[in-house]
């Protein structure tokens, strides 16, 4: 049994106080690693306390958690939640009932169908949905509305891998497991900052590296945290991955590393792949095109060729490209040529970005798929699915993919759209196009847990969904492991599961087949469809369709067994009682693939340059991605003060020589402009990025910054096969963002609504959530002698009960203002030249104090601590809250030369390990200081 039952503890006090503790094993809602977590709820009459730790028994993480997972409890409050159904936009929005709102959706959908046809309706869903939610909405749209106009934000992260798998293997599947990374001899990380984006898997790889002779190669345009421990870093030019792996294919073939018996028995179309890659037959040409030094390129090719067990993990840097499918197939081709697949420690491995991207693929969540790994354009598959569902119709052609979908909304082809658990105004490329589209759309439904997001502002109907901790169902991680996501929190009164909301609308439109009362019933139907007319590999039947995706062993699962279901990898061909943990760890062991020939296919991959090249107007290449402590559009992680300090502001990373060339400086503000839009970011200089390139995170939105949605800037071109957008290659220009002054404003938590007037009077701002206080970085263009610096001019605290302290120096272009009430710090504002603004973390610590001493007041007004030793500096280790100054002090006083010594002294780096690269950098800097 994998759930830990509630433990009721009685504590005897004078008041006979009752105390209870319940621990529930569930699954983390962040990345595709799919870590198991144990959530503990302690309840007393005074309230409840929630803590989250790693599940020691979960086979994906064995108790490890990254900093985001460790801080899940920080994100469970109700302060930003959408708690009741609402109708109307803007000032017309009002609370309504579920009965009324589902009736309105059903009526409006039916009107669209009657007037314009089913193709006038679209759904845009998310890898944040549970498999049960995903299944129901796809059944409703494809089997009952009869359209395939349903796509998912997984289109933005792994649809290229899906297409590549289907072309090579005949089915969308990852053939290996995380365990393979612990038994391989070489790991190739392609387009993946694994240390930050999938930290727990990275730590498993690093542990394996310390225990055995494991070689790690990183292929990435930037030198990231992942490169710190790598044996080889290949700083490839953006968009040249096909060239690199076509060159590897040619090298392997020319040098005699072909596994001829494997190729002959289990593959086909090698000649076409070799012909397509002929232009990369000369390694010197490959070196020139990729920008990788010839010596490093030869070293990598030799290592791959001479190592029997190779795992190639590829992620967003491969997928998010106009050539993403070909990039993935070029990688797979090299594994097929050498037979490095279907054996322990050898496989290509697609790492997904979201917790249930794989589950969405299982149920046909993409616009060009049917449920249970069946194909939308194959009549046999259409017949199988429609027959199983007993549905009135079935979608027979691919629907609109994400970018095309919102373009169709803007042109009026789509009249109604339902968006679930995602924020496309931030996450999609050319994001202002999405804004225009939703503004024009006749009927927009949004299901979310947050009331105020960039996207909910355009909703005609808002549906309050269940959040993590309240949901009940399953998710599937990147190694095909199905895990239970269990509810452990009380459900807010009017919030509902997404599958329930869809069922209500379906029934009100007159459809049967949606009488589900529990997620278990949905999962059971999902399992039954996976095995329905699913032919055996060895006895394929024209009237059936073989799929590796098969949950036949779970078709009779009971409610109790579902509640207690342990993490399990598919295919699941045995009953729960007969299952062996190793049954499905590795696919293709017998060399049988899902193509009708039972063979894998080499795919001809042409090395084509990115669609949009640099120009005189836009001479730099923008690459976007994730950072360590944030997730997607920050609607969850932005609530945690423990996750906001590592990278507190929206920024862009550029090479120092480019900073000189374009007239920008470290920590200055810069406007990043493309042909599609612009935004304002803080400059970070880095030697780890090549000249001519810019990196910016994807996370910030209009709730956290005035102008930082990088999606507005991103190139909307997509891969012609997968429809996945080109997030890694947008031509841009950098220009200094002129401001006359900069400042930092702190205001105690709960009073943010009072500063809206202030923010309207500045040209730029960023919000940073800190413990008990919110910090706002601000800047303006009005002249200093026209600015009234006193806090009273920014905030409406004119009550005589507030105590004011002001310090101004016009000649220094500086003003400090402090406000207190009953000795408690309420707010503070500093306006000064950027280099004279106070240490942000030090000021924030004073908001934690119940009362301020006279010394603290003087220090606050001066804008600097009385002693530099009085604060730890910017946070480096988020897990144990260890700051930069504390680490430097410890390094110097203890003569530290290795990061393990820092961990021994301060615990920093001892949990998720994401901060270890920074700790190593601090050690190196201190050593250089001593040597100088």
UniProtKB/TrEMBL annotation:
Domain of life: Bacteria
Pfam families with a match to the protein in the record: Fer2_BFD (PF04324), Molybdop_Fe4S4 (PF04879), Molybdopterin (PF00384), Molydop_binding (PF01568)
One Gene Ontology term, aspect cellular component: oxidoreductase complex
Assigned EC number: 1.7.99.4
SUPFAM superfamilies named in the record: ADC-like, Formate dehydrogenase/DMSO reductase, domains 1-3
Gene coding for it: nasA
Presence of the UniProt keyword Hydrolase in the record: no
Entry annotated with the keyword Iron: yes
UniProtKB keywords: 4Fe-4S, Iron, Iron-sulfur, Metal-binding, Molybdenum, Nitrate assimilation, Oxidoreductase
Limits of the 4Fe-4S Mo/W bis-MGD-type domain: 21-80
Cleavable signal peptide: none
Gene Ontology biological-process entries: cellular respiration; nitrate assimilation
Organism this protein belongs to: Acinetobacter baylyi (strain ATCC 33305 / BD413 / ADP1)
Similarity comment: Belongs to the prokaryotic molybdopterin-containing oxidoreductase family. NasA/NapA/NarB subfamily.
GO molecular function, one term: oxidoreductase activity
Listed name of the protein: Nitrate reductase, large subunit
Names of the cofactor(s): [4Fe-4S] cluster; Mo-bis(molybdopterin guanine dinucleotide)
InterPro entries the UniProt entry points to: Asp_de-COase-like_dom_sf, BFD-like_2Fe2S-bd_dom, BFD-like_2Fe2S-bd_dom_sf, CT_Nitrate-R-NapA-like, MoPterin_dinucl-bd_dom, Mopterin_OxRdtase, Mopterin_OxRdtase_4Fe-4S_dom, MopterinOxRdtase_cofactor_BS
């Amino acid at each position: 049994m994998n759930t830990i039952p509630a433990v009721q503890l009685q504590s005897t006090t004078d008041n006979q106080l009752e105390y209870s503790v319940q621990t529930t094993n569930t699954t983390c809602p962040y990345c595709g690693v799919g870590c198991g977590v144990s959530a503990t709820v302690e309840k007393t009459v005074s309230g409840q306390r929630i803590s989250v730790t790693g599940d020691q028994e979960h086979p994906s993480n064995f108790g490890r958690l990254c900093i985001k997972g460790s801080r899940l409890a920080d994100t469970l409050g109700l302060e930003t939640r959408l708690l009741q159904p609402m109708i109307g936009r803007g000032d017309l929005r009002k609370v309504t009932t579920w009965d009324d709102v589902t009736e309105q959706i059903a009526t409006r959908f039916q009107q669209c169908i009657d007037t314009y046809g089913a193709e006038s309706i679209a759904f845009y869903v998310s890898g944040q949905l549970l498999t049960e939610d995903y299944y129901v909405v796809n059944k409703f749209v494809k089997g009952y509305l009869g359209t395939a106009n349903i796509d998912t934000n997984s289109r933005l992260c792994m649809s290229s891998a899906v297409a590549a798998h289907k072309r090579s293997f005949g089915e969308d599947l990852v053939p290996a497991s995380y365990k393979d990374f612990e038994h391989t001899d070489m790991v190739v990380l392609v387009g993946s900052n694994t240390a930050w984006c999938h930290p727990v898997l990275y730590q498993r790889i690093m542990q394996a590296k310390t225990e055995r002779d494991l070689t790690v190669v990183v292929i990435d345009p930037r030198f990231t945290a992942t490169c710190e421990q790598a044996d080889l870093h290949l700083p490839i030019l953006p968009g040249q991955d096909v060239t690199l792996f076509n060159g590897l294919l040619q090298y392997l073939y020319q040098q005699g590393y072909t596994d001829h018996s494997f190729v002959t028995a289990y593959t086909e179309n090698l000649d076409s792949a070799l012909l397509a890659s002929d232009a990369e037959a000369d390694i010197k040409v490959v070196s020139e095109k990729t920008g990788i030094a010839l010596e490093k390129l030869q070293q990598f090719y030799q290592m791959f060729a001479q190592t029997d067990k190779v795992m190639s993990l590829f992620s967003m840097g491969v997928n998010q490209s106009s050539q993403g499918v070909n990039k993935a197939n070029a990688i797979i081709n090299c594994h097929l040529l050498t037979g490095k697949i279907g054996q322990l420690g050898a496989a290509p491995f697609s790492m997904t970005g979201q917790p249930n991207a794989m589950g969405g693929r299982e149920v046909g969540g993409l616009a060009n798929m049917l449920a249970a790994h069946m194909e939308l354009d194959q009549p046999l598959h259409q017949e199988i699915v429609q027959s199983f569902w007993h549905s009135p119709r079935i979608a027979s052609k691919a629907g609109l993919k994400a970018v095309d979908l919102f373009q169709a909304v803007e042109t009026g082809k789509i009249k109604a759209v339902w968006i679930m658990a995602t924020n496309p105004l931030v996450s999609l490329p050319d994001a202002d196009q999405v804004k225009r589209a939703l503004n024009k759309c006749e009927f927009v439904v949004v299901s979310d847990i947050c009331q105020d997001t960039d996207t909910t502002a355009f909703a005609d109907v808002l549906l309050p969904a269940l959040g993590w901790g309240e949901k009940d169902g399953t998710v599937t991680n990147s190694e095909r492991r199905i895990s239970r996501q269990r509810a452990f929190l009380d459900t807010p009164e009017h919030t509902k599961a997404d599958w329930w909301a869809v069922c209500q609308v379906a029934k009100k439109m007159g459809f049967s087949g949606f009488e589900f009362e529990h997620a278990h019933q949905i999962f059971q139907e999902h399992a039954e469809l996976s095995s329905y007319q699913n032919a055996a590999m060895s006895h394929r039947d024209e009237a059936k369709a073989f799929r590796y995706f098969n949950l036949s062993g779970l078709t009779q699962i009971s409610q109790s067994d579902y509640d207690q279901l342990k993490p399990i990898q598919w295919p699941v061909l045995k009953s729960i009682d007969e299952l062996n943990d190793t049954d499905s760890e590795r696919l293709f062991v017998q060399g049988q693939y899902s193509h009708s020939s039972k063979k894998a296919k080499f795919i001809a991959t042409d090395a084509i340059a990115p669609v949009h090249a640099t120009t005189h107007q836009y001479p730099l290449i923008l690459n976007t991605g994730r950072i360590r402590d944030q997730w997607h559009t920050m609607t969850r992680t932005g609530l945690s003060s423990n996750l906001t300090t590592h990278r507190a502001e929206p920024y862009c990373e550029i090479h120092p020589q480019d900073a000189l060339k374009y007239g920008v400086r470290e920590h200055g503000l810069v406007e990043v402009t493309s042909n599609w839009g612009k935004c304002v970011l803080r400059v970070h200089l880095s030697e780890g990025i090549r000249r001519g390139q810019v990196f910016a995170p994807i996370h910030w939105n209009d709730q956290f910054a005035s102008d930082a949605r990088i999606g507005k800037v991103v190139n909307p071109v997509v891969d012609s096969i997968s429809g996945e957008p080109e997030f890694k290659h947008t031509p841009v220009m950098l220009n200094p963002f002129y401001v006359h002054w900069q400042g930092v404003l702190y205001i105690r938590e709960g009073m943010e609504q009072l500063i809206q007037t202030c923010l309207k009077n500045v040209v730029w701002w960023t919000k940073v959530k800190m413990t008990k206080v919110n910090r706002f970085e601000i800047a303006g263009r009005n002249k200093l002698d026209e600015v009234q610096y006193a806090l009273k001019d920014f905030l409406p605290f004119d009550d005589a009960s507030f105590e004011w302290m002001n310090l101004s120096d016009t000649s220094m272009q500086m003003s400090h203002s402090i406000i207190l009430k009953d000795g408690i710090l309420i707010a503070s504002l500093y306006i000064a030249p950027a280099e004279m603004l106070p240490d942000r973390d030090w000021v924030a610590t004073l908001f934690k104090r119940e009362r301020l001493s006279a010394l603290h007041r003087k220090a606050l007004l001066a804008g600097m601590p009385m002693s530099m030793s009085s604060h730890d500096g910017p946070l480096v280790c988020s897990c144990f809250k260890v700051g930069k100054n504390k680490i430097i002090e410890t390094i110097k006083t203890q003569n530290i030369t290795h990061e393990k010594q820092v961990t021994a002294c301060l615990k920093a780096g001892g949990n998720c390990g994401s901060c270890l690269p920074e700790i190593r950098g601090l050690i190196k800097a201190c050593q250089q200081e001593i040597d100088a």
